[in-house]
Design a protein that fits this description.
- The structure is a single chain.
- It is built from 4 helices and 3 strands, in the order H-E-H-E-E-H-H.
- The chain has one domain.
- The protein is α+β, with helices and mostly antiparallel strands and 85 residues long.
- The chain is 56% helix and 19% strand.
Length: 85
Amino acid sequence: MKAAQLENQLEGSNIFYTSSIHLVSYLDSKGVRYVGINKFNDKNLFLFERNEELQNNMNAYHADKNLKSFLESFKKIKGVLSSSK
């Protein structure tokens, strides 16, 4: 499936999707559960129902400076480990 096909399929729906395992994990920790998973270009897309709870938790995720700092460090260390193989 191409990106345009996926966009057309979900256009007008009440579905939000992401492949970010960090965002999905954060949402799950806050009790926001995904409603499905689709495979797209060798990635898993997690599907969520668009609602106020999802939006509020996504806003909190993006505004959390401690979380951003942690994720930057996590990615840096993951890169160090990957390059040392």
